[in-house]
Specification:
The complex is a heterodimer. Chain A is mainly α. Chain A has one domain. Chain A is 73% helix and 0% strand. In chain A, helix 11 packs parallel to helix 21. Chain B has three domains: 291 residues, Zn peptidases (Aminopeptidase, 3-Layer(aba) Sandwich); 56 residues, no CATH class; 194 residues, no CATH class. Chain B contains 31 helices and twelve strands. The chains are: A mainly alpha, B alpha/beta.
Chain lengths: 473, 756
């Protein structure tokens, strides 16, 4: 009976995936009424397809693609997507091929998220069983978190808008997910490739190196390591009296594995990082050889990201701040804002090191909040990843408030923008207010999800100690 | 022990995230509180001893726990604040110093006026001589224009069939749309004259618009052309002009609005049409421009292409109409553009100031006439008046309260202002300008004697011309575009207004109960669930707890899904008229019935497709609290919708709030009330049914129409016509009705008949 239920669920999953594919295609073929690709929410200076097309055009004219502060993305993206931007099929919408690339990227992302979710869930169940928490592990099996998060990613309006609006964030997200999946599946080359490409394209995923290394070293998300230690010592005390059977042995193995940091995949990972990054650098170096070389490339991409040169409004908060701030304070605040991200890395890594995937999620939220040019594509990524922890965060507070907040802000923000830019009856503060509200929502989301996760850990600790007490008495 | 650790962690965690201190403290406090709320009573007690919530949080908890009283108080206060608006209205004042209206003497002389009179006579005689030969009048006007030394050009346009672009307020003007060429039979020709300013750099312009129908020139239209011409001829000579003057003689045979809108579109967003030569040859009228060019006076200053001046600072639409029973010349001002946008108040102020103080015209804005005689409003006015007197007797400084008659007048004007803004349909060709951020109003001047009987036009032309001249002179002084005064306001009389800061209060009070009630319902429903989970886990009921654990705090998902389905249905219903309109030869009545039928059908289909999808996961939810969750989701959705609409079109949101907020707040399954069998519950059920009946948009429309215009000529098709007009004018109100009001109503009905 369980099996048939699982089969129907599987069928439903694929139906929904195909439906999302069809929905995207329909949106692509609709006449461009909403003009999504020019919306500030969708296309930032880094992700806009129009800028990419401009960069490609400049390159075709033997000018540096970075000339004129138009394009700021990776040269590899230019070689991949550039030729597609100029191909016009008769009677088809513009940029059809690009749209198809983004749709495919979305689909692959969803499938990778699903695979990663399944692996995470399996590992989690195993570790729970090894702790003797069969009840909890059964509960956690009910919710197919991989399917949930894949569908959340695919059907999230943010993802759809970013995909149809031809934002390259679909590809950046794919790279991040690729790296996480590679780490979950312990495929060091894949993880390294994803990480290198993601960092190359948008810089901020660089901080994901910590969760990826933890994933490779300790394995997937598990309950706190202390519990395993307690369990181990508790079992050592009682093992002489209880009969030792095969599953017990396996569980013990599991216990041992959980606490050992395996160096070999990590070293392999570093090696592959070196390989891939040198490869990427060489390729980009060849591409921009005539236009100032790698130094110019770094200045125009990473420098542009870090110094927040483009102050056109977006859904982040930095543009307003740097438009207001005095010039001589500018570099100070640049350091402050970027330091903010870096400061949170270590404490979070210490607290959440037993849950590297969740740690990656938290990092991504924080980065997309503090980013210099955030877009809805970033939110799409972390909201999709949130689904991976569907079981652990069941008791999250304010989930309804957060949901309503996201809906409200994402509707209100374009209206405020319209009021400011097109109607002229509002001003920048109107739009910025929604940006602040959005940032606050993200903060609440991080706080709530982390506290829900820690509460879940506490619950596990309680259950586990209760189990130990039972065994001892 | 555990609690202490938890409390500590919250704060340390926040610090680690490095959020600004204030916010973080608030959030953490709230976290603690929420946890306290959702935990079991015993834990809450132990928690409460250690963590004392902050005053702000305690206030929030108090509000949520007393949601009933809060909502009653807020709703009453909101309605009261709305009724008080005419009392709170302020006198208008010229906010921009540069305008300086009326500071210069009028220069319009008798000579200009007699020239204008000649034009009027020529036009009317032309009308008598040649019936139906349109181009002759354009030629005449262009001749007059070019005699003054203006650059004259023609603008040929194809009046557009109305297309539906309801999402303009989300995305901005759609420039990329390719307009389909209509058949050649309907073609309009605007005549445009431009005077270049001797002191300007050609970067700014002021626009005069006189709509007229070339096939049938009435006396009023001829006089409006005369007024514009007199001003135009003066301005062609003056030295102080710093902005170019554009005189657009709009061809209104296919509607005033579309002519002006088409010219503006061409002015701002030039369209590069693929001209099919073979196609244009077949058009008879395509030769019109050529024909016009052939005439002997073409050598003056007639230009082939589209002429432009600079950005437009302001636009005045001039009309002359007959009026019936007034003792002095009067001036009607129309200002509402699409989606309740208004021009800058300064523009209205100038016109008002000049008309009243300089030209002695009587200014009127639209009033809801049926309200003038209503006794309850009069009583209310008397009440406020006596209150004001009491206040003044206490302290002479308090200037509260206005005479009752003035209150009634103000309320009638306010009601009409709210209605026309809320409708979102422009009240004249000035509406087209607002889409390009240009402030524009329509001035409708009516003389005291009938137009046909008027013996001497000169005096009337002089008065009107001087008014226009004064306004243009003021606008000419402007250094920047209008920005100083208000854009968001409601008029209670031509010289009194309510600004956004005041009228928002009433709206905020109206919607304030929504989040509070939603939060309280949500907290109630979740507490209940938590208790169940606790009980079950304590009794180790392993089989049942699995499903409860599964959703935890996420059990609102199911009700959110239902709300989403209903709103999706709203979207489908809003799209249906598009398809119904395609059907030929259909009366309003049948199309309305068809619409209703298809809507019900689509609801059924949506329910079958999406409603059954998750039903397997939905069964576990305790039925008796499900409606609470559903109601909280409904209220949240309507709150979001209302807030959104208040930004897009305040007046529509205000009217909608008055309709749906009581309904949303009262909604409660009838079964509960009928089961209780007490008088109070019966009253509740009756109220619910009443609100449910009144809240249905067509019923609301019929009732309102009946109240204001009498019930005797109500027709089912009226609602369809009304909706069609909203739809044709791209009003956001249409979407508001279809995607907020209607789904909310449907959800409330669903809650009413919920089987709990």
């Amino acid at each position: 009976m369980m099996k048939s239920l699982g089969k129907t669920k599987l069928r439903w999953f694929w139906i929904w995936v195909i439906a999302s594919l069809v929905f995207r295609l329909v949106l692509i073929y609709l006449p461009e009424n909403l003009n999504l690709s020019s919306r500030p929410e969708v296309s930032t200076p880094l992700t806009s397809i129009r800028r990419l097309a401009e960069g490609y055009w400049l390159k075709q004219l033997s000018v540096s693609p970075y000339a004129g502060s138009m394009y700021h993305g990776s040269p590899l993206l230019l070689t991949l997507l550039g030729p597609l931007t100029v191909i016009r099929l008769e009677g088809q919408p513009d940029h059809l091929l690009c749209s198809l690339v983004f749709v495919i990227a979305d689909m692959i992302s969803a499938i990778l998220i699903r695979a990663a979710g399944q692996r995470l869930q399996m590992a989690y169940c195993l570790s729970l069983k090894s702790l003797g928490l069969h009840q909890v592990s059964q509960n956690s099996e009910v919710l197919p978190s991989g399917d949930v998060s894949a569908l959340v990613y695919l059907w999230n309006p943010f993802t759809i808008v970013a995909c149809v609006g031809l934002s390259t964030s679909a590809i950046e997200n794919l790279m991040v997910i690729l790296s996480l999946y590679g780490a979950c599946a312990r495929l060091a080359p894949l993880a390294a490739f994803g990480w290198v490409m993601a960092t190359h394209m948008s810089l901020y995923p660089a901080i994901l190196i910590i969760p990826v290394v933890l994933l490779l070293g300790y394995g997937a998300d598990a309950p706190p390591r202390k519990l395993f230690l307690q369990r181990k010592y508790g079992q050592v005390g009682t093992s002489s009296s209880s009969d030792t059977s095969c599953p017990e042995e396996e569980a013990k193995n599991q216990l041992r594995v959980q606490n050992v940091f395996s160096w070999s995949p990590v070293l392999l990972f570093w090696f592959w990082i070196l390989l891939w990054s040198s490869y990427v650098l060489v390729l980009s170096g060849i591409y921009v050889r005539q236009y100032g070389g790698l130094q110019e490339l770094f200045k125009r991409t990473y420098g542009f990201i870090l110094t927040v040169q483009d102050l056109s409004p977006n859904i982040g908060v930095l543009w307003y701040f740097f438009a207001e701030v005095f010039d001589f304070f500018r570099s100070f605040f640049l350091i402050v804002f970027h330091g903010n991200i870096l400061m949170m890395i270590v404490p979070l890594a210490l607290r959440l090191n037993h849950r590297p995937c969740f740690l990656a999620f938290v990092y991504i939220v924080i980065a997309s909040m503090m980013k210099s040019y955030p877009s809805v594509g970033d939110s799409a990524l972390y909201l999709g990843l949130l689904g991976l922890f569907a079981y652990e965060i069941t008791d999250m507070h304010f989930s309804f408030f957060l949901f309503c907040g996201y809906v409200g802000v994402s509707l209100l923000s374009p209206v405020m923008h319209n009021l400011w830019i097109w109607r002229g009856t509002g001003n920048a503060n109107f739009y910025f207010a929604t940006a602040i509200a959005y940032a606050c929502l993200q903060i609440v989301l991080v706080i709530e999800s982390v506290s829900a996760m820690l509460n879940h850990d506490r619950m596990l600790a309680k259950e586990s100690s209760a189990k130990l007490q039972d065994v001892k008495s | 022990m555990l609690n202490r650790v938890r409390g500590k962690f919250d704060y340390s965690n926040c610090n680690r995230l490095g959020i600004s201190c204030d916010f973080e403290a608030k959030i953490c406090a709230e976290l603690g509180e929420a946890r306290r709320l959702s935990d079991s009573p015993a834990m809450a007690q132990s928690d409460g001893n250690k963590l004392k919530p902050r005053p702000v949080v305690r206030l929030g908890i108090l509000l949520i726990s007393q949601s009933f009283f809060v909502s009653v108080i807020c709703l009453t206060a909101g309605v009261l604040a709305l009724l008080l608006l005419p009392v709170l209205a302020k006198n208008t004042y010229i906010s921009e110093n540069a305008l300086m209206p009326g500071s210069a003497n009028n220069m319009l002389s008798g000579q200009d006026v007699s020239e204008a009179n000649k034009l009027v006579k020529d036009l009317t005689s032309l009308e008598l001589r040649l019936m139906g030969l349109g181009m002759e009048s354009q030629r005449l006007i262009s001749q007059y224009m070019s005699d003054l030394g203006a650059e004259v050009s023609y603008h040929k346009f194809y009046p557009q069939l109305h297309q539906f672009h309801p999402l303009q307020f989300f995305s901005g003007p759609d420039s990329g749309i390719i307009w389909k060429n209509n058949s050649c039979s309907s073609i309009g020709v605007n005549t445009v004259g431009i005077i270049r300013a001797p002191r300007g750099d050609g970067k700014e312009a002021i626009v005069l618009v006189t709509p007229y129908n070339p096939n049938k020139i009435g006396m009023g239209e001829a006089l409006s052309l005369g007024i514009a011409y007199s001003v135009f001829s003066l301005l062609s000579r003056v030295t102080w002009l710093a902005k170019d003057i554009i005189w657009l003689v709009a061809d209104s045979q296919y509607g005033e609005y579309s002519a002006v809108a088409d010219w503006l579109r061409e002015y701002h967003v030039p369209v590069f049409r693929k001209v099919n030569t073979g196609d244009t040859e077949t058009c008879i009228e395509s030769n019109i421009l050529y024909e016009l060019g052939q005439k002997p006076y073409a050598d003056r200053k007639l230009y082939e292409g589209f002429k432009r001046a600079g950005t437009m600072a302001a636009a005045l639409v001039i009309k002359v109409t007959d009026q019936n029973d007034y003792f002095e010349d009067s001036l009607n001002i129309y200002a509402e553009a699409s989606n309740g946008q208004m021009p800058n108040l300064d523009l209205i102020n100038i016109v008002n100031y000049l008309a009243v103080h300089k030209q002695g015209l009587r200014i009127r804005v639209k009033k809801m006439l049926s309200l003038l005689n209503s006794s309850w409003l009069n009583t209310l006015g008397l009440l406020f008046e006596s209150l004001g007197q009491i206040a003044r007797s206490l302290n002479p400084q308090w200037k509260f309260g206005i005479p009752a008659t003035e209150y009634v007048e103000g309320a009638a004007t306010l009601a009409s202002s709210l209605y026309y803004q809320g409708l979102g349909v422009p009240t004249g060709p000035h509406g087209a300008f607002r889409d390009y951020q240009i402030d524009a109003i329509t001035l409708e001047i009516s003389p005291k004697v009938s137009l046909t009987k008027m013996a001497r036009h000169n005096e009337f032309l002089l008065r009107g011309g001087r008014l226009i001249e004064g306004v243009i002179r003021s606008v000419n002084n402007l250094l920047e575009k209008f920005h100083q005064s208000f854009f968001l306001y409601l008029l209670t009389s031509p010289s009194k207004f309510v600004s956004v800061g005041v009228y928002m209060i009433s709206f905020a009070l109206l919607v304030a109960p929504l989040p509070i009630v939603a939060a309280s319902l949500h907290a109630d429903a979740n507490n209940f669930d938590c208790n169940i989970v606790k009980e079950k886990s304590s009794s180790r009921a392993t089989s049942g707890s699995k499903d409860d654990v599964k959703h935890g705090s996420w059990n609102w998902l199911n009700s959110a899904k239902k709300v989403f389905v209903f709103h999706l249905w709203g979207a489908v219903v809003s799209l249906l008229p598009y398809f119904i309109c395609q059907m030929p030869n259909i009366t309003p009545k049948t199309s309305f019935l068809l619409w209703a039928l298809l809507s019900g059908f689509s609801l059924l289909i949506l329910h079958l497709i999406l409603g059954s999808q998750f039903s397997e996961t939905a069964v576990f939810q305790p039925q008796d609290r499900e409606w609470a969750n559903l109601k909280s989701a409904t209220i949240s959705a309507s709150f979001i919708g209302l807030c959104l609409m208040s930004v897009i079109n305040f007046a529509a949101a205000e009217i909608g709030a008055l309709l749906i907020i009581p309904m949303c707040l009262m909604a409660r399954p009838l079964k509960l009330d009928i089961g209780a069998k007490s008088l109070r519950n019966f009253a509740k059920a009756a109220c619910n049914l009443l609100f449910g009946f009144v809240g249905f948009p067509p019923v609301t429309y019929v009732l309102l129409k009946g109240v204001f215009e009498g019930f005797y000529e109500i027709n089912v098709g009226d609602f369809w016509n009304w909706v069609e007009s909203l739809w044709a004018w791209n009003s956001a109100t249409y979407l508001f009705v279809g995607m907020v009001l209607l789904p909310c109503w449907a959800l409330c009905i669903y809650i009413l008949f919920h089987p709990c």
